[in-house]
Write a structure and sequence with these properties.
With about 350 residues, the chain is an alpha/beta fold. It has 13 helices and 13 strands. Helix 3 runs parallel beside helix 5, helix 5 packs parallel to helix 6 (about 160-180) and helix 9 (about 260-275) crosses helix 11. The longest helix is centred in the N-terminal third of the chain and has 24 residues, at about 95-120. The protein is globular. The structure holds nicotinamide-adenine-dinucleotide (NAD) and thymidine-5'-diphosphate. Thymidine-5'-diphosphate binds near residues 189, 199, 215, 222 and 292.
Length: about 350
């Protein structure tokens, strides 16, 4: 069967990387990207693939049922990889509405549209809908708690996490009730190329390059389990092609790092690799700022299931992945400089004003 993939959110960070991965790894497949090009979407991430006809790009909202129905039919879609979302916890605290609209209602619309399309085709057993989610749905770990796994109870604590948890429940319910061939993945924090500079790692790198303060929330002791985005793409590839519908897969890097340690690693790499910096050593830019409300202390993933059942393993250590990420931001200013818009500046200003107060 020739696979016809719909990748939602493909102008964003992870789905953009996945689109590059898929065109290289599976050149016989056809790919359509659907993206609303919100502030976080950047056509430049996949422009070479669009411009050379390797993929089709549709500018639109996953919540637009007529658009999605037409796209599924016109492109004879057999596989959906759903990553479009509002993804930033801080924005979900100041403006949760968009998170419910896209992450909950948008996912509902996509599931319903795919269900109708799948039924009309006679319910093929080899079609797939992969719903991509986060470990944040599981809540927060204490230092001695075991990592999250597929049987961990849901306990979302931010508006972002709650909206993703709701969408995970919808995805599983559509599989259980209607038999739709849905899979769910829950992954830890990603980093790497094409990451929008509001998230900790790209924000730190760009602030160092511009000589601006590096905001560390609270005392910097919060822990995240970092996974290089290419490793996540390989995991999604395995799940889509070899995973069992109805099953959930947790994905993580086995790379738990406290935020302050991570920022120190980034500062050291920038001091080593960046030829010119406004402030050196970079760690002089670190500022401890008011903590994020409800800030989850620790996330960590036990990825045994995907390792044992699907033969996936993370390949990139955090030391290597951070070095590659720093080098990418140093050599791809053309990608990130246009993102430093008036909207971006006013967002950062509001964050700093609120947190430094
Ligand atoms: P991102 O914010 O970089 O990209 C999201 C993309 O979705 C953007 O291109 C945006 O334009 C698009 N989009 C937003 N609303 C849309 C809508 N209504 N219709 C169509 N397109 C829309 O996000 P990301 O960090 O790449 O995350 C992608 C997915 O992976 C999300 O579902 C997120 O929950 C999940 N995830 C992210 C991480 C992480 O560390 N970033 C970890 C685990 C899971
Ligand atoms: P982030 O990249 O926003 O991812 P998430 O909240 O989804 O884990 O944040 C990663 C960690 O870094 C999180 O503990 C919050 C913290 N953080 C800072 O200390 N300073 C910042 O400027 C940002 C954006 C995040």
């Amino acid at each position: 069967m020739t696979r016809h993939l719909l990748i939602t959110g493909g102008a964003g960070f992870i789905a953009g990387n996945l689109t590059h991965h898929w065109t290289a790894a599976h050149p016989g497949d056809r790919i359509v990207v659907l993206d609303a090009l919100t502030y976080a979407g950047n056509r430049a991430t996949i422009a070479p693939l669009i411009d050379f006809g390797r993929i089709s790009f549709v500018h639109g909202d996953i919540g637009d049922r007529a658009l999605v129905d037409g796209l599924l039919a016109d492109h004879a879609i057999t596989h959906v990889v759903h990553l479009a979302a509002e993804s930033h916890v801080d924005r979900s605290i100041t403006g949760p509405g968009a998170f419910l609209a896209t992450n909950v209602n948008g996912t509902f619309t996509l599931l319903e549209a795919f269900r109708a399309h799948w039924l009309a085709a006679g319910s093929p057993t080899d079609w797939r809908f992969l719903h991509v989610s986060t470990d944040e749905v599981f809540g927060s770990l204490e230092p001695d708690d075991p990592p999250f796994c597929e049987t961990t109870a849901y306990s979302p604590r931010s508006p972002y996490a709650a909206s993703k948890a709701a969408s995970d429940h919808l995805a599983r319910a559509w599989q259980h009730t209607y038999g739709l061939p849905v899979l769910v993945s829950n992954c830890s924090n990603n980093y790497g190329p094409y990451h929008f500079p509001e998230k900790l790692i790209p924000l730190t790198l760009i602030n160092i390059l511009l000589g601006r303060p590096i905001p560390v929330y609270g005392d910097g002791s919060n822990v995240r389990d970092w996974l290089f985005v290419e490793d996540h793409c390989h995991a999604l590839d395995r799940i889509l092609l070899a995973g069992e519908p109805g099953r959930t897969y947790c994905i993580g890097g086995c790379n738990e790092v406290a935020n302050l340690d991570l920022v120190h690693m980034l500062c050291a790499l920038m001091d080593e690799l960046a030829p010119e910096l406004p402030v050196r050593p970079s760690r002089e830019l670190i500022r401890f700022v008011t903590d994020r409300p409800g800030h989850d202390q620790r996330y960590a993933i036990d990825a045994s299931r995907i390792c044992e059942e699907l033969g996936w393993q993370p390949q990139v250590t955090v030391q290597e992945g951070l070095r590659r990420t720093v080098q990418w931001y140093l050599t791809n200013r053309d990608w990130w400089q246009p993102l430093l818009s008036a909207e971006y500046a006013s967002y950062l200003e509001s964050q700093y004003a609120a947190r430094l107060a």
